[in-house]
């Protein structure tokens, strides 16, 4: 660990953090984590919830973590207070946006290759805590895996989540033509246009595929970014043009469903999956370089961001998880250490 004398004196041995217990989520006193050679120790200022946090809260395994005793929190922002011996890209005092495990604590460690420095603008900790996962996920889904070409049409299925809203913005930024977003709630559909959607559709409507076709000259979209999956997969294939692409990012509607292989073959659809759970830190670092090359100017200019629906102190962590479970939010739920 590399620390300055002043930061060494300031670091406590114990901290408060949210962990999964046999009785549910609880705030416990924990040891301050030690940094490895490629890690940063971050004084957490704000954390944001993701769907994957719900999996951990249910006791399921996500990315090698899970079960009782698991420290919670996959995405956070804060200040670097210590660095591992192999870290040269960051120093004590830097403001950073991180992903990893244990972000719902006073201190958390993150590999420097999974960490972004704050962009050069007046960005608050709460807003910054909403960005690392959404920036990486959307760039991979749209640019790398989805191979979006300028002028192509894009459908974001399940667009009112934080990463869904970022997908609308990134698709437009990277040159998409018509962008369509779906949400099952009318008030959310009314706001999708603020984030780049040209058309908003209710995926619970029995005729939603026909509406997509109506807005794409009867052909379907070139690229579908899918956060829902499950029982919607066959309708999704009907909403994509012959030879088009579907990138499966999330499975909010279900992790399995009937798959019409003949429809898939007849429409010659490329069905592609993406996740970060099976990527090495070096792979993530390369993705971060691509994100910074393509998205950072817009981020610094304030043209990219995710709305925060609710900001709660860490002591109300169970309330925050309950809100996410009900799917009653638009954008992100943030927890602060104050």
UniProtKB/TrEMBL annotation:
Alphabetical list of Pfam families matching this protein: ADH_N, ADH_zinc_N
Domain Enoyl reductase (ER): 20-335
Keywords noted in UniProt: NADP, Oxidoreductase
Keyword flag NADP: yes
Oxidoreductase in keyword set: yes
InterPro entries: ADH-like_C, ADH-like_N, ER, GroES-like_sf, NAD(P)-bd_dom_sf
Protein name, as recorded: Zinc-binding dehydrogenase
Organism the protein comes from: Variovorax dokdonensis
Lineage per the UniProt record: Bacteria, Pseudomonadati, Pseudomonadota, Betaproteobacteria, Burkholderiales
């Amino acid at each position: 660990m590399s620390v300055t004398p002043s930061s060494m004196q300031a670091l406590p041995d114990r901290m408060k953090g949210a962990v999964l217990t046999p009785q549910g989520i609880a705030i416990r006193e924990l040891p301050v984590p030690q940094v490895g050679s490629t890690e940063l120790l971050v004084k957490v200022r704000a954390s944001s919830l993701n769907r994957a946090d719900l999996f951990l809260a249910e006791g399921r395994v996500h990315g090698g973590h899970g079960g009782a005793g698991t420290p919670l929190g996959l995405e956070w922002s804060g200040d670097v207070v210590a660095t591992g011996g192999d870290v040269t890209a960051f120093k004590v005092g830097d403001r950073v946006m991180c992903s990893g495990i244990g972000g719902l604590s006073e201190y958390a460690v993150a590999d420097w290759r999974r960490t972004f420095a704050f962009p050069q603008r007046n960005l608050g900790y709460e807003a910054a805590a909403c960005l690392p996962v959404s920036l990486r996920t959307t760039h991979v889904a749209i640019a790398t895996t989805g191979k979006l070409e300028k002028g192509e049409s894009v459908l974001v299925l399940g667009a009112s989540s934080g990463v869904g809203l970022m997908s609308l913005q990134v698709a437009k930024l990277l040159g998409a033509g018509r962008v369509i977003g779906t949400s099952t709630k009318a008030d959310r559909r009314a706001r999708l246009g603020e984030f780049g959607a040209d058309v908003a559709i209710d995926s619970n409507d029995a005729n939603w595929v026909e509406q997509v076709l109506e807005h794409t000259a009867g052909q379907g979209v070139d690229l579908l970014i899918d956060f829902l999956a499950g029982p919607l997969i066959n309708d999704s294939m009907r909403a994509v043009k012959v030879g088009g692409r579907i990138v499966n990012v999330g499975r909010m509607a279900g992790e399995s469903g009937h798959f019409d292989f003949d429809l898939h073959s007849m429409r010659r659809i490329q069905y592609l999956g993406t996740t970060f759970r099976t990527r090495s830190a070096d792979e993530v670092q390369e993705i971060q370089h691509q994100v910074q090359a393509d998205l950072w100017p817009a981020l610094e200019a304030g043209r990219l961001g995710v709305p925060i629906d609710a900001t709660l102190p860490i002591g109300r962590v169970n309330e925050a998880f309950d809100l996410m479970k009900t799917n009653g939010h638009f954008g992100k739920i943030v927890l602060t250490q104050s």
